[in-house]
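Weekly puzzle thread! Below is a chain. First person to post its structure in token form gets bragging rights.
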Amino acid sequence: MNDPVANDGQFQAAGPNPAPLPKGSIAGLTGLEALRKMIAGDLPPPPAAATMEFWLTEADYGRAVFASRPSAAFLNPLGTVHGGWISAVLDSAMGCAVHSTLAVGEGYTTTSMTVNMVRPLLPESGPLICAGEVIHRGRRMATSEAKLIDSRGKLIAHGSETCMILAG
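Winning reply:
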């Protein structure tokens, strides 16, 4: 696997015209199979990954991990990483944790999300890890949690999310 935060955190776009995956390319796959194919490079990452500068690095049933090193493009006027970026990476980790539990033909959508930022994310915080885990997986609803950790092991933010499971 290539280092997703190499080149000083600069990501390559998913191609000249990034787009969501065609439904046919994942139609016969479980959610976990699709995520693992993205990690392996057999399926392209979603356009948001390159735009937001975070990358899926691990996926197991009920768990997803992202790595990142946000660039100056995400700094707010006070010089810290914008809370919207923090929310986006937490949402991705929590959502992909749920995605990893999907059976063939199922989908999901986020219905609510809570984010708690416990310290500022500074440009010198180094590489970040955001790990999400499913807390509950029912037939129609799932809940998940995630933590965003900096290179010194310090908690930056954590969140929880509820997702609706959509039948195929």
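Puzzle host: Confirmed. Bonus trivia for everyone else. Helices lie at 6-9, 23-26, 31-40, 47-52, 83-99.
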